[in-house]
Amino acid sequence: MDKDAKHKRAMEKQKAQVDKTIASANQERGVSVLLTGNGKGKSSSAFGMVIRALGYGQKVGVVQFIKGEQLSGEEIYLREKCPDVFLYQMATGFTWDTQDRSSDIDAAKKTWGYAKKLLTDASFDLVVLDELTYMLAYQYLDEDEVVNAIKNRPHQQSVVLTGRGGGSALREVVDTVSEVKEIKHAFRAGIQARKGVDY
Ligand code: ATP
Ligand code: MG
Predict the structure, then answer these.
(1) Distance from chain centroid for Cα 179
(2) pLDDT at residue 22 in the model
(3) What is the pTM assigned to this prediction?
(4) CATH value at residue 92
(5) What backbone phi and psi angles, to 5 degrees, belong to 165?
């Protein structure tokens, strides 16, 4: 058989397999996605989904479990151009530097309160909980409560969680888990973090 015919046959076989998989996907509901791993690309992927959802006029909520001073392009854009997007950042009170554990926990719990609200509000199509995993790793939030909130969210709502680690309970409850693996990172070669790329 020549190369073209061989390629055609392989493609036909692949298409049949894909068609079969598509046909067997008969559930219509929101999906939960965990983006984890040590490589770059977790939060930026989550914000890629924010843009996708906004393209279809969907309602989007973003809660970021990060310190407030880290201004990012996505924050500027959402605040200036997308007033309909709900955006909350842990910001105030969060003090990695001072090691003030109890105020960290207060800030984490307050932020989780906003996340919980979104996870019970069926008007939100997409909810992003950026860097949530660290709150579980530090045991600032109760894992069972987080897992149950994700499990019991509105049927049509999708949720994206980001951050390294995440733990087995979170991995189990979500539909999709992707691990971004670091092969190399510019930072290690001494290149400064870049506006529009890194933040
Ligand atoms: P991004 O927001 O770029 O998608 P991320 O969410 O996957 O990155 P985080 O751990 O949240 O990764 O880190 C955010 C910041 O740290 C970004 O500026 C990113 O470029 C940088 N970063 C991510 N991964 C690495 C790495 N392996 N080494 C050094 N810096 C990193
Ligand atoms: Mg991130």
Answers:
(1) 12
(2) 82
(3) 0.90
(4) 3.40.50.300
(5) 70, -130
